[in-house]
Design goal:
heterodimer, A: 114 residues, 7-stranded mixed sheet, globular, B: 115 residues, mainly beta, 6-stranded mixed sheet, 4-stranded antiparallel sheet
Chain lengths: 114, 115
């Protein structure tokens, strides 16, 4: 049972490039989400999904797209990278997404946009 | 609206002394509250959670937290710090949205433990 996995661990992009951050979980969780972590700001929700085929925006969705074609995978796409997107990105999952559920986090992807 | 404030950005203690990390929350209804720990270059791991059961919650690695509604606080404590406790700690309040959960994170408290 690998839990939540993320690839890549590190990535450097040039302004304007696009890329996809991968996230997968093997716990059959319905709820998955993407956060970005910036110094002194904790984690902020980018997008979330309550099941395959269903996604919604979080606090800071601009510049990011998501899709959820399977229960296991929840990729995050950067359409045209900007320096303001330099951050550490975490994917998380939980059983149902209720407010009592424990969130399980991946190890993170550290992204630098030049 | 829900929010969470961690009162200290940095806390430094000596090994073997008590740890206190402070957290205040605001919520328009009875919240679910969590403490997560993040070790350097790692993901977040759940320490403990409060979900309207017992107000004193025990977590992993000897940590515990007490929910005090009158003070809107959820402070994290440990009787005796260990070097391995050095990490960043996040207090989190839940925000149900259409029956699903969105987490609101505090800014974090970095705990340093000195020999």
């Amino acid at each position: 049972n690998a839990g939540v996995t993320q690839t890549p661990k590190f990535q450097v992009l040039k302004t304007g490039q696009s890329m996809t951050l991968q996230c997968a979980q093997d716990m059959n969780h319905e709820y998955m989400s993407w956060y970005r972590q910036d110094p002194g700001m904790g984690l902020r929700l980018i997008h979330y999904s309550v099941g395959a085929g269903i996604t919604d925006q979080g606090e800071v969705p601009n510049g990011y797209n998501v899709s959820r074609s399977t229960t296991e995978d929840f990729p995050l796409r950067l359409l045209s990278a900007a320096p303001s997107q330099t951050s550490v990105y975490f994917c998380a999952s939980s059983h149902r997404g209720f407010n009592t559920d424990t969130q399980y986090f991946g190890p993170g992807t550290r992204l630098t946009v030049l | 609206a829900q929010s969470v404030t961690q009162l200290d950005s940095h806390v430094s203690v000596s090994e073997g002394t008590p740890v206190l990390l402070r957290c205040n929350y605001s919520s328009s209804y009875s919240p679910s509250l969590f403490w997560y720990v993040q070790h350097p270059n790692k993901g977040l791991q759940l320490l403990l959670k409060y979900t309207s059961a017992a107000t004193l919650v025990k977590g992993i690695n000897g940590f515990e937290a007490e929910f005090k509604k009158s003070e809107t606080s959820f402070h994290l404590t440990k009787p005796s710090a260990h070097m391995s406790d050095a990490a960043e700690y996040f207090c989190v309040v839940s925000r149900p949205s259409g029956g699903y959960n969105k987490l609101i994170f505090g800014a974090g408290t970095r705990l340093a433990v000195h020999p």
